[in-house]
Amino acid sequence: MRIALLALAVIAQCAIAAPYQPQQQVRGDIRIWGSPEDSDLVKLWEEGFRKHHREARVVASLHGPESTMAGVYCDVADIAFVGRELRLPTDNMAFQWVKLYRPTTVEIANAGFKASRPAAGLGVFVHPDNPIAGLTVAQLDAIFGSEHKRGPANARTWGDVGLTGEWAARPIRVLAPPVTTIPALFFRRVVLDDSLKWNVDMKEMADDAKAIDAVARDPAAIAYAPMAAAISGVRALPLAKAGTAFVKPGAESAADRTYPLARAVIVAVDRPTGKALDPRVREFLRYVLSDDGQAAVAREGAYVPLTAAAVQKQLKVID
20 to 30 A from 225, CA-CA: which of 40, 48, 188, 217? Predict the structure, then answer.
């Protein structure tokens, strides 16, 4: 509830100048492929959009994120509600083979911390007894990686990241999702600077709940996982980018992207090189990016609305 209220506060502070106003009337089906978890949000968007376009209809085929891109390049979908980041080149390779150009991606929200979704907001968790106040991205790279591209050396004890006394020589027990998962690919890009060299002692755990439970039972452990998996026996650390203050995970830091692990929620569409976007798709995305569409994001609660500046940037993508 608190995250949903914060999301509503974010959109109230960052509202665009006016609610949605159609630039042209559209009709016919707007076909969306995505995940069943997003059905409530898609329904809210459809209800709002059809108030302005009575002869338009949103047809949702929500079978999961892995099939979304195929729907677009096979011309049976107009919008791929991918949610998470595209895996490059895996997710766009087939699209490019078929279309001979890249898909156009549009950010329509920020990842939230309340629900498990393809782009769920991630946290870095330690035991409550661990005295570490926070970690920088460079220190995370040193802990979870072995190439230390962001710093001078690897960190294998808690003393390597600044703890003293009895903690200085205590080994860091590193837990993480399997390295081929979507969260790991995101973490590798933003933390390890695309290095493929993970900490060789890192234990891969496919079950987020079990990983978090392991941290709750071991004061020397650390793990990253969706914030939705958090329990009372762990603590989510504030994180910092180079030269900035520590930032806690939350709706506001997700919206302004000050939280180092902030993620965007995206859709992908087919826009031929040098041509305008299909009017139906463009009007629908304009609605999604409007005050009305972003209010629906806040109301549904799984994601965090975009700021006004982020909306304006995305509007330029679809113009």
Answer: 40
